[in-house]
Amino acid sequence: MNIKTATLFAALAAALCAAAAFAAPPRGAKTTVASRVIALRFIRFADDDGANAAQVSLRRIWNAINAANAMMYASGSDIRFTLDPATDPEETVYSTNHNNICVPQDGWQDAPQGADPAKLCPPLPPGRDEKTADEAIKAAQEGGAIPVTVRGGFGRVEWHDGRWRKSGGPAWGVYFGYLDIPEGFGAETTLAHELGHVFGLAHTFHECGSDECRRDPELSGSPLTVEGIRRQILAAVSSGRFERTDKKGMLAALFDGDLAQGVADTPPDPNYKVWGSSFGDNLRAGEITHLCAPANASLDVAVTFPDGQKEIYHFAPDRSDIMGYFKNCWNSNTRYFHFSPGQLAIMERNLQGKMPFVDISYADTDTWRNRDREPAPQSAMQIYDAPAHAQDALVYVETGAAQRAYALELSGPDGKTRRLISEAETDPQKFPPAQKTMYALDVSALKTLNGTWTLRATASGGAAPPIAKWRLEFR
């Protein structure tokens, strides 16, 4: 789901893979690591007549790629993503059938608030002709890249700010194939989440797939409320499928969406909607204050059985797992999003066995590790061979055992100190201990990148923690 090569984009992609050579600073050690780099080819779509062309920019693309790379780094993976040099945000593929999920009816904008959105914009029929889109997807795959099709048409219509508006609708990743996302890309976690699907990962919660579930979503599939959880547990016990005391087995079977896939290290996840309804958030209004609060990391559900006996069932989903639906918790203190080791193993297996079209390149990068854990939270690198036309510095950081929030500052060869701002989070100055993350810094105005770069951690009310490990790359 054709693309022309643009010299500018080729240069950008090549620069991303360029690595700086680091000299080992005093009391430190220099090591070289190799990252596997996979290209993503973004394909812009419009309707057959050119209407509803997706709005795509390089900045938005790089923001999404950077966020995905930050998650791969936080997960301990050596896989990184880059922009395929064949991507041209101005090149357009015309396909009304692919660019839209639904067809807006005449007068949809004038309908009253209570109108049925599915009738205002009914879905396009399944099996519709998408030959043009299929050819673009195939061309990207033949070029060794994972295709990312970007839609600008109607996904659905939504009532917002007193009137009906067009919405891009959902994003999805097709197993071992491609990503399909609306313009704007949704949350910054969207690209990484859908890449997980492309690599074969399921959601951490169960899907609603049965006729019975569609009739009563609280009975099976993904529950919407705590009462829905109770009803599922009561049904599972009354059917004889589980003993009421087999809590581990029952919760895994009912609420662990990727267990059948072989992922055993993601806990049962009853769905973020249960969290929102339980802790008082109005999810329809976009409220996630309680949904993402660190204090609300677990939920106990009391179930009373027909004989009067009561059991307590404990839920503690990993709200920072990218394959769950807690993705709006990005700005919370629940930890940065990541893939679990079990999920990474599935991704690796599928990359090797079911995605032969993907070309993998290798980029050597140098890493400086503060092995001595110096008391002073400062470390320096001497850069000798930085690329001549880099636009951004990527700073990968793994903190030490911090006991308080702190800020990171980076000083460059020009002597200026810059406070690091993560592209993956709006409040990057505060995060939990032993945390990995990535920051991006515009260095296009610097005359040279060679020289001494110093990273410092600062904290109010006490000493800042040492920096366990950090890496500097340029693109």
Task: Explain how this protein is built.
The protein has 475 residues and is α+β, with helices and mostly antiparallel strands. It folds into three domains: 37-201 and 339-353, Collagenase (Catalytic Domain), CATH 3.40.390; 211-331, no CATH class; 370-474, Galactose-binding domain-like (Jelly Rolls). The chain is built from eleven helices and 19 strands. The protein has helices at residues 7-17, 58-74, 96-99, 117-120, 131-142, 190-198, 211-215, 226-238, 247-255, 272-279, 341-353; strands at residues 22-23, 29-46, 79-83, 92-94, 146-151, 156-160, 163-167, 172-173, 179-182, 299-304, 310-315, 360-369, 378-383, 392-399, 407-411, 417-419, 436-442, 451-458, 467-474. Strands 2, 3, 4, 5, 8, 9, 12, 14, 17 and 19 form a ten-stranded mixed sheet that branches. Strands 1-13-18-15-16 form a five-stranded antiparallel sheet, with no helix packed on it. Strands 6-7 form a two-stranded antiparallel sheet. Strand 15 (407-411) and strand 16 (417-419) form a beta hairpin. Helix 2 crosses helix 6. The longest helix is centred in the first third of the chain and has 17 residues, at 58-74.
